[in-house]
Amino acid sequence: MLRRSMIIAEDSNMPKEMQELRKQWHSIVQSIHSNSNVVAFMNSRVGQYLDDHPFIALSLLMFIAVSAIPVAFFLIFVVTTAIMACIGVIVMEGVVIAMGGIALLCVLCGLGALSLGVSGVLSICYVVLSTLVNYWYASRDQIRKQEVNGSLPQKSPPVLDLSDNNGKNE
Question: What phi and psi values does residue 19 have, to the nearest 5 degrees?
Answer without folding.
Answer: -65, -40
